[in-house]
């Protein structure tokens, strides 16, 4: 049966009506007899519009126009969700319905998360918030890597740890806490120090996405993660500090080094930091870390489910959380890039 797309709003106007997309804000006027428009809107709200033969007369062409712009779909062909036996994610599936298609329901989009595997390298400030969000939204498998133990100084900003956990392995505690969020999420832990690509390659190869949460600070581990993902062909999302992106799909989109090489101001700042052995101050403040980590997981959700096009492919977002301003820096994949260039493709 035909019904309104769940990602579209509608209301009556003196000219007939208006519909608009809640995700793109596209708006369209629906001209005609206001009473007829209202009657059709009510039928589509109920989901009992049958198509071209629907009554009253004159409604078929109006409904077909709504269908052409995507405001109306036939849910007979939709694949429902199947991976939520206890109804835990019913409201989240409703959220994903904003991006439903004639083939996929919001529940089916939720299933895509359940079928995904992510790798989180480092279960510290950003890593714990990312891991918690990944478990809360129902990502099926979460791989955690960290060789450290919990310290008292971690507690103000690393959300998975408690006072009683001081001295315990971070990955062990994190796995216990994530199981509380959703026991059906599979958490795989590795108490492993990453010194080179070989230490990480086997894990990256199993993931659909790797979270590289070391940002644009001068960090050897960030480079190891990036190189590993290029070699294994695994997409990775760079975040950390006040930056988000790029989302690097090896062989297709720019990596962080492409972005640095393509932006003189960014490259100059990093070069000076290296020359002076100076690192930007960290932001060990839980609310800001939580905000940036949540953006990273939302961007990962876009990529893993395909519900909405990622906004960090060939782009970096710089987020000023003091002024609430965001700046988007775009770039292109560079064939000569030392990290992801043609000579490094595997």
Low-confidence stretches: none
Instruction: List the domain count as a whole number.
Output: 3
Class inferred from helices and paired strands = alpha/beta
Instruction: Determine Rg (CA atoms, Å).
Output: 24 Å
For the biggest β-sheet, the strand order reads: 8-7-6-9-10-11-12-13
What kind of oligomer do you see?
single chain
CATH superfamily of the largest domain: NAD(P)-binding Rossmann-like Domain
User: What letter string, H or E per element, gives the SSE order?
Assistant: EEEEHHEHHEHEHEHEHEEHHHEE
**Mean pLDDT over the residues:** 89
Percent helix, as a range, is: 25-40%
In the CATH classification, which architecture of the largest domain applies? Answer: 3-Layer(aba) Sandwich
Protein name: THIF-type NAD/FAD binding fold domain-containing protein
InterPro entries: ThiF/MoeB/HesA, ThiF_NAD_FAD-bd, Ubiquitin-activating_enz
Pfam families: ThiF
GO cellular component, one term: cytoplasm
Could you explain the architecture of this structure?
- Helix content is 35%, strand content 19%.
- The protein is of the alpha/beta class.
- The protein folds into three domains: 2-76; 78-107, no CATH class; 115-344, 3-Layer(aba) Sandwich (Rossmann fold).
- Helix 3 crosses helix 4 (106-114), helix 5 packs parallel to helix 6 (170-181) and helix 5 crosses helix 11 (286-305).
- It is elongated, with a radius of gyration of 24 Å.
- The termini are far apart.
- 42% of the residues are buried.
- The model has no long low-confidence stretch (mean pLDDT 89).
Could you write a compact summary of the structure shown?
GO terms for molecular function: nucleotidyltransferase activity; thiosulfate-cyanide sulfurtransferase activity; ubiquitin-like modifier activating enzyme activity. With 346 residues, the chain is α/β, with parallel strands linked by helices.
């Amino acid at each position: 049966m035909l019904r309104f797309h769940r990602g579209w709003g509608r209301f009556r106007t003196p000219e007939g009506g208006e519909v608009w997309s809640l995700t793109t804000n596209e708006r369209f006027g629906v001209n005609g007899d206001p009473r007829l428009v209202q009657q059709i809107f009510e039928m589509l709200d109920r989901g009992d519009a049958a198509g071209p033969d629907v009554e009253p007369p004159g409604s078929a062409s109006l409904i077909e126009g709504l269908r052409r712009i995507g405001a109306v779909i036939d849910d007979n062909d939709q694949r429902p969700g199947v991976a939520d036996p206890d109804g835990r994610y019913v409201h989240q599936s409703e959220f994903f319905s904003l991006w439903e298609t004639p083939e996929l329901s919001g529940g089916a989009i939720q299933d895509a998360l359940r079928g995904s595997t992510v790798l989180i390298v480092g279960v510290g400030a950003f890593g714990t918030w990312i891991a918690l969000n990944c478990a809360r939204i129902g990502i099926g498998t979460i791989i955690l890597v960290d060789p450290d133990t919990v310290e008292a100084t971690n507690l103000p900003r690393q959300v998975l740890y408690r006072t009683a956990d001081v001295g315990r392995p971070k990955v062990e505690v994190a796995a216990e806490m994530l199981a509380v969020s959703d026991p059906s999420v599979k958490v795989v832990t590795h108490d492993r120090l990453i010194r080179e690509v070989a230490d990480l390659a086997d894990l990256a190869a199993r993931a659909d996405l790797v979270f590289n949460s070391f940002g644009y600070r001068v960090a050897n581990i960030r480079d190891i993660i990036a190189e590993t993902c290029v070699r294994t062909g695994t997409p990775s999302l760079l975040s950390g500090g006040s930056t988000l992106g790029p989302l690097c799909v090896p062989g297709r989109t720019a990596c962080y080094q492409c972005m640095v090489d393509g932006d003189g101001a960014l490259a100059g700042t990093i070069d000076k930091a290296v020359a002076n052995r100076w690192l930007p101050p960290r932001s060990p403040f839980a609310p800001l870390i939580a905000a940036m980590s949540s953006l990273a997981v939302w961007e990962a959700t876009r990529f893993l489910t395909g519900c909405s096009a990622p906004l960090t492919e060939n782009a970096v977002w710089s987020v000023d959380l003091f002024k609430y301003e965001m700046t988007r820096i775009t770039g292109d994949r560079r064939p000569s890039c030392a990290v992801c260039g043609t000579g490094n493709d595997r």
